[in-house]
Design goal:
The protein is of the alpha+beta class. It folds into 4 domains: 236 residues, Beta Barrel (Lipocalin), CATH 2.40.128; 94 residues, Immunoglobulin-like (Sandwich); 143 residues, 60s Ribosomal Protein L30, Chain: A; 118 residues, OmpA-like domain (60s Ribosomal Protein L30, Chain: A, 2-Layer Sandwich). Helices cover 18% and strands 41% of the residues. The chain is elongated, with a radius of gyration of 40 Å. The N and C termini lie far apart (85 Å).
Length: 632
């Protein structure tokens, strides 16, 4: 029986590692049923029979003398003391059926026990986490019936004696149970619940000591360990009890704004992007070779290269946002080939390559390497390409160049040669498709995350530290035409408390025919003003394309230099500056449009090239103008 005690305690320890409890503050009735397996130790005691049959005394000690299966059921009442602790009681039917074998006799007879109880069980249930609880119950068991069956199969003839009364059975036995349960809500009112459970119990004093002196009344008499699995149906009722709750840390509400695409429709539309061609090739630290990230073609391929090779971007099947970013970076890294294509198409065009290195000699070497590429791979006449060092400024002062700013600037002889690269694409994820999730500053949010559930869909986003975040909805819908979703935003406030808000929404798809246009203008480092040529480009090129009723979205970007507040403020200034230029021009043209400004800071989700590279920082110092056509 000592081994029996140790095994039971180990089983209880393992049960303590799982469980469920729902934190509702109402009274509750539970109806439970389940399957029970019993392990019985007989102890040293006699099951006497009339001669000539032997008495079965179980003299040989065994940890378990047998086991058996039984059904179980009960009714419980629970009353909450606070959000975590419940007390109550259970009235149950408990069958401790077992098939024992007495190995102390040569005949090894079987003793089949049929012992049934009506149990009274005070209970305590404690929530160890949300929907997770641990329950402990002392057991008082009232014996309702007890009998045994004697079976001796190896006798000739076999002996079976049934229906014998089991003597020396106390009116009351006692024990305890410990287990866990898991709660599922079955209705929106959170009133009905299904609660699967698993528990172990130990029932002592099932029979009085009857085998003489020296018999331990606790460990050397009949007792049973049981493992029970099953489920309860629970019904909550009544009002909340009077108790002293923990004071709330703050109002359990967060202000949540959840902006969907118009009518919840994700659109696929054709887009023409006028992507600015930077005139700068950046070099790796300590090297004068053209970096491998820039596209360098062999002689045969180079001579066939045409700028239109990179114009159509997977037009038929459509691209997502990452595909668009890849197309943009691909256009920049073809900078050498695009200028070569423009040299071939315009025989009067010349190029000046101005190198900026640590020394003047290094500057000239970097320029010469680019010239050699044009001459050897693209077959450009060397007399059309000029090299010089940019180590002195306009006043003749030597410029200080850092390793990460070693570069060659390409200066075409004609302004038209700096025209943007035209990228044509079918976009599955245009910017105006985004879901915008915003929280309010008054709620003192430190960080937040969002989980979105749908049919066969479960995805988490975050954690985020900014109060607003854009989510690409095509990630949610996948290849489906429509879907229903539930978003749960969990916010951690600055005082450490956690609050949530939910939003249900629907998404569907639609393919549009009219073409949107996108333009990008680049700013100098830490600047929020543009050069005169760029201002004129906005007025005369972009402004001339816009007609009344179209929607304009201007998003500002900045590189990663500085703290987050400064970066965000600079991106906002850039977008507002472009908006002001455009508004004045449209007013002159009597064009009425809705213009929206969206600052992004250095949001890496929208970075064309990583800000760890100088060209990435250059392109991220930008404002992007989206012209969305009016659909009938």
């Amino acid at each position: 029986m000592k081994k029996q005690s140790i095994i039971f305690l180990l089983a209880i320890q393992s049960l303590c590692t799982v469980g469920v409890f729902a934190q509702n503050l109402h009274k509750e009735l539970r109806f439970d049923g389940g399957y029970q397996y019993n392990w019985t130790g007989a102890g040293y005691q006699s099951f006497g029979l009339e001669p000539p049959l032997p008495s079965s005394n179980f003299v040989t000690f065994r940890f378990i003398d047998g086991g058996g299966e039984a059904a179980t059921g009960g009714l419980s009442y629970l009353f909450p003391l606070n959000e975590r602790l419940r007390v109550g009681g259970r009235l149950g039917l408990d069958s401790r059926r077992s098939n024992l074998v007495d190995y102390s006799l040569a005949e090894q007879p079987n003793i089949n026990l049929y012992i049934n109880y009506l149990t009274f069980e005070p209970l305590i249930e404690y929530a160890i986490m949300k929907n997770v609880g641990l329950q402990f119950r002392p057991i008082l068991a009232l014996n309702t019936s007890s009998s045994f069956e004697y079976v001796q199969e190896n006798a000739r003839p076999p002996v079976r004696i049934a229906g014998r009364e089991l003597t020396d059975i106390p009116t009351l036995s006692y024990g305890f149970a410990l287990g866990t349960n898991y709660r599922f809500s079955l209705d929106k009112r959170n009133q009905w619940h299904a609660i699967p459970f698993i528990e172990g119990s130990w029932l002592f004093n099932q029979r009085s000591a009857n085998a003489g002196q020296g018999q331990n009344p606790l460990t050397d008499v009949l007792s049973t360990i049981s493992l029970r699995v099953g489920a309860s149906i629970a019904f909550s009722f009544g009002t909340e009890p009077v108790y002293e709750p923990e004071p709330p840390r703050q109002n359990p509400f967060i202000g949540l704004s959840f902006s969907l695409p118009e009518r919840g429709t994700i659109v696929t539309r054709p887009t023409e992007e006028y992507f600015p061609l930077s005139n700068t090739v950046f070099f790796d630290q300590g090297s004068t070779k053209i970096p491998s990230r820039y596209s360098q073609l062999g002689a045969e391929t180079a001579k066939r290269f045409d700028e239109k090779n990179i114009e159509n971007v997977n037009y038929s099947s459509g691209i997502n946002r990452q595909g668009r970013i890849s197309a943009q970076s691909n256009a920049y890294y073809h900078i050498l080939n695009v200028y070569a294509s423009r040299l071939r198409s315009n025989p009067s065009l010349t190029l000046k390559l101005v190198g900026y290195g640590i020394t003047a000699d290094e500057s000239l070497i970097m320029g010469k390497n680019i010239k050699d590429y044009y001459v050897n791979s693209h077959g450009i006449d060397p007399n059309r390409i000029f090299i010089e060092s940019g180590m002195q400024d306009n006043q003749g002062q030597k410029q200080r160049i850092t390793q990460d700013m070693r570069r060659v600037e390409i200066e075409p002889g004609l302004p038209t040669a700096t025209a943007p690269v035209l990228l044509k694409m079918m976009e599955n994820s245009p910017f105006d498709n985004d879901i915008l999730v915003s929280l309010e500053a008054r709620d003192s949010i430190a960080s937040w995350k969002m989980r979105v559930l749908g049919e066969k869909f479960d995805m988490s986003f975050g954690p985020f530290t900014t109060l607003a975040q854009r989510i690409e909805p095509t990630i949610l819908l996948g290849t489906k035409l429509e879907g229903y979703f539930n978003a749960t935003v969990t916010a951690t406030k600055k005082d450490g408390s956690i609050q949530t808000a939910e939003k249900e929404f629907k998404l569907d798809r639609k393919r549009l025919e009219k073409t949107a246009k996108r333009f990008t203008v680049l700013f100098n480092e830490k600047e929020s003003l543009l050069q005169t040529s760029d201002e004129n480009y906005i007025k005369n090129k972009i402004g001339a394309m816009i007609v009344s009723g179209e929607k304009i979205i201007i998003h500002g970007h900045a590189d990663s230099e500085g703290d987050s507040k400064q970066i965000y403020a600079l991106s906002k200034k850039r977008a507002e500056y472009v908006r002001d230029i455009l508004q004045k021009e449209l007013k002159k043209r009597s064009v009425i449009c809705d213009i929206q400004v969206v600052p992004f800071g250095d949001d890496k989700t929208y970075s064309i090239i990583s800000s760890t590279l100088p060209e990435g920082r250059q392109y991220n110092r930008s404002a992007i103008i989206e012209i969305i056509p009016l659909e009938k």
